[in-house]
Amino acid sequence: MIDSYRFLDFASRQVMKAWAARQEPGIIPFTPLAKPLRECTIALVSTAGIARNDDRPFDQERERRDPWWGDPSFRVIPLGTTEQEVRIYHLHIDPRFGQADLDVVLPMRRLAELAHDEVVGRAAPQHYSLMGYILDPTVVVEKTAPAIADSMCADHVDAAALVPA
Amino acid sequence: MGLVQRVLEARGIPTVALSMIPELTRAVGVPRLAGISYPMGRPLGQPHDADGQRAVLRQVLELLSSAPGPDTYVELPFVWPESPAQARNASKDLPPPPIVELLKRKPWLLAYLYSGRIPHDAPAA
How many Cα neighbours within 13 Å face the side chain of A26? Predict the structure, then answer.
């Protein structure tokens, strides 16, 4: 059994445990895969707060002013984007690992390799990033996530993998 | 992240999540979840370890087809090569997150963080 809190410091561990105890999952949605995995177009979603250098940065300044707030927007990361072309804005993780090798947080090259090996059909043309650690998820749930879903549907994405940071 | 996953799934897109804190992600209630005992910031593994990253991603993606129903949870067998102290040490030169800075100055606000009652009038800085 994995110890979910093994790598966290004492304070983070206590907070995360308190959050886990407070959740109420209710009815969990489930959509079966419509075709074999080896035929599926796959999109990735990272919560590392990745934005292309030519795109709008995530708002770190407002979070520094109001630590209860997190930027609830998302960015599109086109397939083939490299670590040189992005910045990682998440203020709660060490961004240097993903900045040295983007596949650590958004494994687009690994996904393309798995498509080449016919484990999956293909990597979607666009992938997505948002900030992790958003204490009030209202905007993310009501606006951001539905907008990502619309974009995935437009790209004929068959399934998505979410990668935390 | 689990909440985003639920929205996508409810919109008809099958989803799977990787999590380093699977107890919390699972508590949110997600369709398919792969737990991994890796440190924050390195969900797929070490930089430039393409084989290791690919092995993790492959097992995550295979859960898309193997999961029989909602709340499917598997624990990935990968072992991080460092102790938690070693993994944290690599990042100890970074400034703490803004919320940690705030709570150092005003520790009584920790009760808000525990309870999830976000102070909307922001008794922040």
Answer: 4
Q: What does each of the 165 residues of chain A score in pLDDT, given as a tens digit?
A: 999 999 998 888 888 998 899 898 999 999 999 999 999 999 999 999 999 999 999 999 999 999 999 999 999 999 999 999 999 999 999 999 999 999 999 999 999 999 999 999 999 999 999 999 898 999 999 999 999 999 999 999 999 999 999
Domain segments of chain A as ranges: 37-163
DSSP H stretches of helix in chain A? 10-22, 60-65, 96-100, 108-116, 138-139, 145-154
| First vs last C-alpha separation in chain B | 27
Q: Structure pTM?
A: 0.95
Mutation target for B interface from A33, A94, A106, A142: give the one with most B CBs within 10 A.
A94
Distance from CA of A51 to the nearest CA of B (A): 16
Residue A70 forms contact with B (CB below 8 Å): no
Domain boundaries defined on chain B: 2-82, 95-125
